[in-house]
Amino acid sequence: MADLVHLAIIMDGNGRWAKARFLPRTAGHLEGLKALKRCISGCISEGIRYLTVYCFSTENWKRPPDEVKYLMALFTNKIYGEIKTLNSLGVSVRLLGNTSNLPPEAVKNLKKAEEETKDNDKITLQLAINYGGYDEIERAVNSLIRDGYKEIDASLIRSRFDNPDIPPVDFIVRSAGEMRLSNFLLFDSAYAELGFYDKLFPDWDEQMIHQIKEDYYKRIRKFGGLA
Length: 227
Ligand code: FPP
What we know:
alpha/beta, EC 2.5.1.-, binds farnesyl diphosphate, 43% helix, Isoprenyl transferase, 8 helices, 6-stranded parallel beta sheet, Undecaprenyl pyrophosphate synthetase, globular
């Protein structure tokens, strides 16, 4: 059985969590951030080396301006504000996604967080912000076209992704009962296992990560071959 090296989470249900408590949707995102911290601790305890989280998709710009603004403020302030904790936990931050239309202050702080955590080796936390699977492939192919390639293959495309050194995802899980990928990791999900959980993301904790790991090890991965 292939080890669970790289877990990815589609953090869904923040809005529903807030609505159930008569709170604004933004309160759900803040609670989601707290759940993310518990998930990082859980991954470290379970020996998972890479965690990728879907924070903002290339389609999320369609949300109400106030919600977008709030999320951008979280990306600008919260990660960099947690540098000390991230360093003490051994978390190395990596940015995944199209930075060209993110607020410059957010990009600056996220890049600083990358730089200041780059030597940590307990876990790599890949933050997918303004990320889209189509966009990732388009940017990679366009960079190959600019370099004059006439023929390309899958490994060449992957080599132009934002973080080609990060191994492909093993298990993609989604909270809040939705069962779709929503343009997440389209290329690298080719042979990933998929898991869908009813619990809303703000309610996730370390135990959830333990459960996810157990579920993963029940899967039989064949990568198109035989078991
Ligand atoms: C989807 O739930 C959630 C998002 C689009 C945002 C996820 C972002 C976070 C958890 C914050 C991460 C912050 C940092 C700084 C890394 P939804 O709002 O679509 O939920 P709903 O379907 O119930 O409305």
